[in-house]
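BUG-183 | component: ligand-complex export | severity: low

The export step for fe (iii) ion jobs runs without errors, but we want the raw record kept on the ticket for reference. Input record follows.
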Amino acid sequence: MNVVDEIFEMFARRGDEAYFGEPVSQTEHALQAAHQAEEENAPQPLIVAALLHDIGHLIHGMGEDIADRGIDARHEAAGEAWLARRFPPEVTEPVKLHVAAKRYLCQVDPAYFGMLSPASVQSLALQGGPLSEDEARAFESHRYYREAVRLRRWDDAAKIAGLQVPGLDHYRPALEAVARIQA
Ligand code: FE
């Protein structure tokens, strides 16, 4: 099966599950994040990163109440590992850094914490809380940190119940263009 069909199957199988404590499904969340990326004319790999940033949730097989049970599923690491065999760093690095980007924004943007949803505040604690000032400077040394911060803001805003946005098929050409050629 090619990468794109594999991704579509994962969304078909698990995408209707709720997005951890938010009023949208996993698929709706992904589509809303990708749509914002496209609206901001983000480069194609970053649109794909927005679409796939939580693919780790579709892989790991844990229930939707993991944060309630005090478990940080480390979904960004699971997602990055899966994506790394299929996509270039322009996709995988922002995905890997999108949780750190939330911790970073809590340090550098005083208004940011107040915009987080209750579920996101809860998971922040499990993810280690805000970065320190030194950690924030270190985060800025990542080559893809700006992309990760952009992705993070789309992620945070991709939780609107009932919002009409383009469907998965809309992103097939971008996925095909950005995915590594399969052996
Ligand atoms: Fe997300």
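Assignee comment: Attached the raw record above. The chain is about 60% helix and 0% strand.
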